[in-house]
Amino acid sequence: MAQNKTIEELTAPIPVLTIDREAVDTREEKYQRGRIHVQSRARMPEKQLFDFAEYQPQDAERTGYSDYSYWKSVWRNFLKKKSAVVMSLVFLLLFIFTFVALAISKFDVYNLRLDNELMFHAPDAEYWFGTDNLGRDYWCQVWYATRTSILLAVLVSVGEIALGVVMGLIWGYVRGLDRFFTELYNFVDNIPTIIYMTLIALMVGKSFVIIGIALVAVSWLQTARNIRNLVFMYRDREYNLASRCLGTPLGRVLAKNIFPYLVSVIILRLALSIPSTIAYETTLTYLGLMDISLPSLGILLRNARSYFLDYPYLLVFPATIVSIITVTFYLVGNAFSDACDPRNHV
Questions:
Q1: Is residue 239 included in any domain, yes or no?
Q2: 8 CB contacts (<8 Å, ≥6 apart)?
Q3: Closest CA relative to residue 326, chosen from 101, 82, 91
């Protein structure tokens, strides 16, 4: 029985392992199926093989969209300069205080009393900055003069830079005007500015408006010359040549293609022009070429020149404010100029 059983087991059919062809696919079968698929597509009509994609302008613009903002990047880089931020706050507080100081003063700046008994009164609790040679409160005069000088310097500097930038762009881009502006610059630059201002003060007038317009009329050429030299660097670049070929108007080429590269230089020129204008105003007042009826820092420094050895506070207060304005604008201007440079944007 055991022997028969063994023979049966030996002669029994061997079980066959079935493989699910749909679940397991060999590389060869995949290749063969791929060939069949390609052949079947090759026999399809062309209309079924290709289909035109719809064009959406908004979607096309969104593919190249970036959240980069030039002025946001400028502001972010400027805030990294801690010293410049502090100095800009100092100047802002100084300008605001010119209004606050007059409001909290014990005396009216427009009706300061003359009292010979109070001449050269030293600073104390009653007269915070002392009195001048006529017995007038010096606190009111200093802060009113500071506000006047700052407003004059800002208006003159903005007018000078605006006119200089516009004329400099035209000077540098329009080649036919180069000779005219160059000769005009050489003529004006070879004569000292103080001579122009002296002639204007003596022939036209010494008011702040006249002197301010005269400073703008004389100083804009320096800015225009600087802008002209920079425009030469960008005028013949490929994108400007392409704009010319496409018939882009001159104003658009100057405003869109060239002006953005000059922002850092313009900011620096503006920042340095404000203290320079205050220095001019001080010099002209010192020489008696400006109207002294309206107090300014230059007038206070002019009046203090005869007394500062005996009464130094008459010179210290206005000179300190002029120094603060000069230093703040120099530091802030350099920092803001660096921040406006696109090469410093990451």
A1: yes
A2: none
A3: 91
CB 230 within 8 A of CB 224: no
Question: Is 5 inside a domain boundary?
Answer: no
Three-point CA angle 30, 32, 36, nearest 5°: 115
Closest by Cα among 163, 164, 168 to 231? 168
Domain span holding position 121: 74-344
In this structure, the answer to whether residues 153 and 28 fall within a common structural domain is no
Residues 281 and 152 in one domain: yes
Q: Do residue 41 and residue 85 come from a single domain?
A: no
Tell me if residue 38 falls in helix, strand or coil. Answer: helix
Residue 6, in any domain of the structure: no
Q: CB of 334 within 8 A of CB of 268? A: yes
**Dist. CA 134–CA 132, nearest whole Å:** 5
Q: What are phi and psi of 105, to 5 degrees?
A: -70, 150
Whether 202 is covered by a domain: the verdict is yes
Residues 6+ apart with CB under 8 A from 106: 126, 137
Report the CATH number that the domain containing residue 310 is assigned in CATH: 1.10.3720.10
Number of domains, the chain: 2
Query: Tens-digit pLDDT profile for the chain (346 aa)?
Result: 444 555 555 555 555 445 455 545 555 565 455 555 555 656 666 555 566 666 666 666 565 556 667 778 888 888 888 888 898 899 899 989 988 988 888 888 877 777 778 888 888 888 888 888 888 888 988 999 898 888 888 888 889 999 998 888 888 888 888 888 888 888 888 888 888 888 888 888 888 888 888 888 888 888 898 888 888 888 878 888 888 788 888 788 888 788 877 887 888 788 888 878 887 887 887 777 877 777 788 888 888 888 888 888 888 998 899 888 888 888 888 888 788 777 777 6
Q: What is the DSSP letter of 43?
A: T
SS3 of residue 131 by DSSP: strand
Residues 6+ apart with CB under 8 A from 15: none
